[in-house]
Amino acid sequence: MAGTLKVGVIGVGGIARTHMPGWAASEHAEVIAGSDINAAVLEEWGKLHGVGRLSTDPADIFNDPDIDIVDICTPNRYHAPLAIAALNAGKHVICEKPLAPTPQEIRQMIEARNRAGKLLMTAQHFRFKGISQAMKREIETGVLGDIYHARGWMLRRNGFIPSPSFILQQHSGGGPCIDIGVHILDLTLWLMGNPKPVAVTGVARAPLAHHKGAFAAWTGTPIPPEFDVEDYAAAFVRFENGATLVLEVSWLLHHDIEGEDMQMWLYGTEGGCHWPKGEFLSTNYQTRQFYNRTLKLTRDTMEPHALECVEFARAVATGAPSPVPAEQSLQVMAILDGIYRSQREGREVSISLD
């Protein structure tokens, strides 16, 4: 594609701040427009980044013939309608995680992508960390053999932002299951090679959020009574190839954490590995010796939220596939949706990607 790709950002007040350094660093793209329902925030953002095309109506982004890429950074419930409108208008779309809060909405986004012939990517920034990329390359050599089990968790101790966009179903579609579970689950599935999920047993409850005196440590404020999402979730997932996965996520767990505990173990027939240590473990059965080795990396070349934007622009410019295919995001959301269904029905539920 000739020329510099023009980017319009929708939802400039939150996570978009982490995207802007990536757009600024890209050799293929530049931000020329922004949209937000908060006019004051939008104006401040425009002045900060030197962006003059500002509108509180996202339709102005879709209808702008100069714009090639739309970057969606709104609360979860608004991802699908905005992305579909952008794709229908002939724009490429990068959208914050989760791609959408339900599998059906992601299917609709994939259909819109296919009709438009454009790229659609979920901003799963943990894939773009240096250790994640290095481990992916190492695993693809076959060093683990057949991966038959995985464990992943992302846990916080009173760690979340108690704003309506996170704690109300009408905006978020769920609590930590969708907010941070989407991170560790996407990363785990990607490193496993994205096996097809077939069933999940899960729980998603709020045992702590409504406790008298419950508070959000990041802001120091009480948790408001209108909080209506889960504060923790756990699941056991089965895959078509026989592999299994255990998942745990929480915003409020009584756990010895400073900030956040995000870890993953993969277990294969030839070895195991740990993220984010980058440690690989194997056994020589003839000599009965254990081997542990750790990947040594220099610092990340760029903050992952920024790098994902750089890589998306590069894919659009060069005609490469989406760095995070929507079909893989459908797998993630099918599992997370299965956790909620399993909680409601009190049993294991089947998962369909069709």
Automatic annotation (TrEMBL):
Gene3D superfamilies noted in UniProt: Dihydrodipicolinate Reductase, domain 2 (3.30.360.10), NAD(P)-binding Rossmann-like Domain (3.40.50.720)
Domain Gfo/Idh/MocA-like oxidoreductase N-terminal intervals: 5-122
Domain of life, source organism: Bacteria
Keyword Oxidoreductase: yes
Keyword list, A-Z: Oxidoreductase
Keyword Lipid biosynthesis: no
Domain GFO/IDH/MocA-like oxidoreductase per the UniProt entry, residue ranges: 133-272
InterPro entries: Gfo/Idh/MocA-like_OxRdtase_N, Gfo/Idh/MocA_oxidrdct_glycsds, GFO_IDH_MocA-like_dom, NAD(P)-bd_dom_sf
GO molecular function, one term: oxidoreductase activity
SUPFAM superfamilies named in the record: Glyceraldehyde-3-phosphate dehydrogenase-like, C-terminal domain, NAD(P)-binding Rossmann-fold domains
Leader sequence segment: none
Name used for this protein in its record: Gfo/Idh/MocA family oxidoreductase
Native source species: Litorilinea aerophila
